[in-house]
Specification:
This protein has about 400 residues and is an all-beta fold. Helices cover about 0% and strands about 35% of the residues.
């Protein structure tokens, strides 16, 4: 047998390198909980006509935490995408229980069991909040995008408007003023600080060390110079000391680590650690549906830097090329794609299993091809990948 032919036969097919879908569940887009009327400041989209009277949409899943007994906590983002249109959206977290459809059964549904709204009764916020009467926090006050839970049940949350870190109790109460890093301010920051970040480019991802000592908030976009993003500098990762409750970085231009996006990518969606130094990053473009090209998971390690000082990246999964041999999403195909504009929730379940959720941007997202215009559902998937560690 010719040597070249032998080598070709010995190489595994490219499809075998793809991740495999092992679990699928969805929460219908039109899922609401009782609350004050929302959506009063947005336009109709995808055949949905706001406002949503006496109810709040369960949407905008921006981060994900695993609990016991198959339940999870998901973080809601600022609501409808902007400070100016989200003052009637209540911020908070949802407790959910997915019944994953797997090769062995399951309905593929998600149940919302509890909603906890954020509030500031002790007036820690350094600027006026929208709901001065009851101090409930809204999407005009903050833009939560990442969170981690502490042993006492409280949460540390990374948000984008300032950007800042928030310490919130298990019951949703703000426990201290927002923690900010000197020289870091978004275009949309509520206090009018000179902008060093573009719109919606704050703490999108935030890893925590396994010992619970350090937070690693990561910017969604690069810093600005003369009002323009400097992509060559990459995305900054900072370090926050949870014992001292302060950043260890002297300022915005002195990050702990830097991450470089692929060509065609525009942002990261989440960042999580599974060891003291190793973790995963969601990298994405700003496209969706059939136009989406970059929806990837990369492995990084604080100990491994490239020649330019950026974190060295190893591809773990292409979310537009996932095998689905059991057709778990019931679309008639053995290929599964996760083509959403914003994919923002990621967790490591074990050395080969990852959980991922999308932010459906209700009612605006429409990444799935359907006969009639309808907003995206919230989808929660489990994928199998090559072992992350030995």
């Amino acid at each position: 047998m010719p040597i070249l032919l032998l080598l070709l036969l010995l190489q595994p097919p490219q499809l075998s390198q793809a991740a495999t879908l092992s679990g699928y569940a969805k929460l219908p887009a039109d899922t609401f909980v009782p609350g004050p009327t929302s959506g009063q400041f947005i336009e109709p989209a995808n055949n949905r006509r706001p406002p949503f009277k006496n109810q709040q949409p369960v949407q905008g899943f921006s981060a994900l935490i695993r609990q016991d007994h198959g339940t999870f906590i998901v973080l809601s983002d600022n609501g409808f995408g902007k400070r100016g249109n989200s003052s009637d959206y209540l911020l908070g977290i949802y407790h959910v229980q997915p019944d994953f459809r797997t090769a062995n059964g399951g309905e593929g549904n998600i149940e919302v069991s509890q909603v906890i709204h954020f509030s500031d009764p002790d007036r820690h916020m350094p600027y006026p909040v929208t709901r001065a009467s009851d101090r409930l926090l809204t999407g005009a006050d903050l833009d939560p995008e990442s969170f981690r839970r502490m042993p006492d049940g409280s949460y540390w949350i990374g948000e984008e408007f300032n950007p800042s870190l928030l310490h919130i109790s298990a019951g949703g109460v703000l426990l201290a003023p927002p923690f900010r890093l000197a020289g870091l301010a978004s275009v949309d920051n509520p206090q009018g600080h000179p902008a060093t970040l573009g719109l919606s480019r704050g703490f999108e991802g935030m890893a925590m060390s396994p010992d619970g000592r350090w937070l690693y908030p990561m910017l969604e976009g690069p810093l600005l110079e003369n009002g323009e993003p400097v992509t060559a500098h990459g995305l900054n990762i900072y370090t926050f000391d949870l014992q001292r409750q302060q950043f260890v970085n002297p300022g915005a231009i002195t990050p702990s680590f830097r991450y470089r996006l692929d060509q065609g990518a525009s942002a990261i969606g989440d960042f999580t650690l599974y060891s003291d130094t190793a973790g995963l990053v969601i990298e994405r473009d700003s496209k969706y549906g059939t136009d989406a090209l970059v929806k990837r998971l990369y492995k990084v390690d604080f100990k491994h830097l490239d020649a330019d000082g950026f974190l060295f990246k190893t591809l773990v999964a292409d979310l537009l090329d996932i095998r689905d041999p059991h057709d778990l999403d019931r679309d008639g195909s053995d290929l599964f794609k996760f083509p959403f504009w914003t994919i923002e929730g990621l967790l490591v379940i074990d050395r080969t299993t990852l959980g991922i959720v999308n932010d459906n941007n209700y009612p605006f997202g429409r990444a799935r091809e359907t006969p009639d215009a309808r907003p995206d559902n919230n989808e929660f998937i489990l994928i199998e990948v090559a072992p992350l560690w030995e």
